[in-house]
Specification:
10 helices; single chain; mainly alpha; 226 residues
Length: 226
């Protein structure tokens, strides 16, 4: 598969991964999207191509996930509607630079093993999300940890780990499945054990959410009527 075509695949995978976030929460899309990104990263011949793949993935992700920002140009559609595609595309392209930095850094840091590359991608992607949410004005939107808002039970895990740690758990669950198809038997076995541990952690966090919801006391504030 030629690298330019892989850029188009990365664009599509990013768009698909966005479907796992609000309002659809189509969680299987996250596994296909990020497992696909991890596979593409393993085929990148250079750090520059790794950056390009991550950037293309990010463009697709933000085009879908932040399309609603363009609705502001429809308030006075006669004068400003023509700006909508340009504004959304420029915003997506700019934010995607963080994704490109993550995949480029992962390419540089990742070891020769598939598991090493996946773990490097998880750590670098999380760091890039933190940077995106904190530098300049910050835009902590479409973080991987946001998928836990799929229901109130999942949200309770944020009280224990916080958003970025939940993003690490989510990224591991979404990228490790690609290693189950690896030709490297030891790599495949290690990935299977790690994925089992991650799924056990997710089950534990879900159990915590089921326990916490009915036991949490309803907040009371004097002088406020709801």
């Amino acid at each position: 598969m030629a690298m330019p075509f892989r850029l188009l695949v990365a664009l599509g995978l990013g768009a698909l991964a966005a479907l796992a976030l609000a309002p659809l929460y189509y969680l299987p899309a996250l596994i296909v999207g990020f497992s696909g990104l991890a596979w593409l990263l393993g085929t990148a011949p250079s750090t520059g191509w790794a950056f390009a793949l991550g950037w293309a993935f990010g463009v697709g992700n933000f085009l879908i996930g932040l399309h609603w920002i363009g609705h502001a140009f429809l308030v006075d559609a006669v004068r400003f509607a023509w700006l909508m595609p340009f504004a959304v595309a420029l915003l997506a392209s700019g934010l995607a630079l963080f994704c490109g930095l993550a995949t480029a850094a992962a390419h540089r840091l990742g070891s020769s093993s598939g598991l090493g590359r996946v773990l490097a991608l998880v750590l670098c992607w999380t760091a890039a999300e933190w940077l995106r949410g904190n530098i300049l004005t910050g835009l902590p939107w479409l973080l991987l940890g946001h998928v836990w808002a799929v229901n109130e039970t999942g949200l309770q895990a944020a009280a224990l780990l916080g958003g970025h740690a939940l993003g690490v758990v989510t990224m591991l669950a979404a990228t490790l499945p690609v290693l189950l198809l690896s030709q490297d038997r030891p790599d495949r076995r290690r990935a299977a054990w790690l994925l089992a541990a991650v799924m056990l952690l997710i089950a534990g966090l879900a159990g915590y959410g089921h326990w916490r919801l009915p036991t949490a006391a309803a907040p009371e504030h004097d002088g406020i009527r709801l």
